[in-house]
Design a protein that fits this description.
The chain is built from 7 helices and 8 strands; from the N terminus they run βααβββαβαββαααβ. The protein has about 210 residues and is an alpha+beta fold.
Length: about 210
């Protein structure tokens, strides 16, 4: 089994992946317009990566990288149909953790209650939990899509330890889910610079407190 490696895509390559794969891999309410992805790539806050197993391209990963932040957001992860059920998902998450070892990755996964395909949403949640992602206790509504938010732990610690490991200005008096909410809001400022749009289309809340 060859080593997984990641290669940055250019605009032509992400356009081909978007049209041939992403339109079929994700529900329409989850899929950003292609022009938004390209605009973020041109601003230097977004990476589109091809996933290879040796010489075989087996998938893709798209990651938001907020400037001057120790955090990133795994926006999309897809494995090609003929490469599924071959153990690539977990290997790709490990490769991403290594690739972004100077950051901590946040992950969104659609909430089954509001997903068009409840079974698929449940499978995604199980996949992330099985491969080291931990529920942060924060949920979100992004352009009408309801998400559960995870953090991909660097080691075998806790959400609190990973926040501190990323050199975050973490307020020790705040519970971890409150801090995660602030982190996500900061990431989305890069994705949606327009404050009025953020107010209109984004909502984050702590599941325990409802705040």
């Amino acid at each position: 089994m060859a080593e997984i490696f990641l290669k940055a895509m250019n605009i032509k390559e992400i356009t081909q992946i978007y049209e041939s794969r992403m339109r079929y891999d994700f529900p329409v309410q989850e899929l950003k317009p292609l022009e938004n992805i390209i605009e973020m790539m041109e601003r230097g806050v977004y990476e589109s990566l091809s996933v290879y197993d040796g010489n075989e391209q087996v998938g893709y990963a798209l990651v938001l990288l907020a400037k001057e932040s120790p955090y990133g957001l795994l926006d999309y992860l897809g494995i090609f149909p003929d490469a599924r059920n071959r153990g690539y998902g977990g290997r790709v998450l490990s490769a991403l953790a290594e690739h972004y070892r100077d950051r901590t990755l946040m992950i969104e996964s659609e909430h089954p209650e509001d997903a068009p395909d409840e079974r698929m949403a449940e499978r995604r949640l199980c996949f992330y939990r099985r491969n080291g992602a931990v529920d942060t206790g924060v949920e979100s509504m992004v352009y009408g899509a309801h998400y559960i938010n995870f953090i991909l732990l660097c080691g075998n610690g806790t959400v609190e330890e990973d926040i501190k490991a990323a050199d975050s200005p973490w307020d020790q008096s705040q519970p971890a889910d409150t801090e995660v909410k602030k982190i996500l809001e900061g990431l989305y400022r890069e994705m949606i610079p327009d404050e009025e749009k953020r107010k209109k289309y984004l909502q984050f809340w702590n599941v325990k407190s409802g705040d």
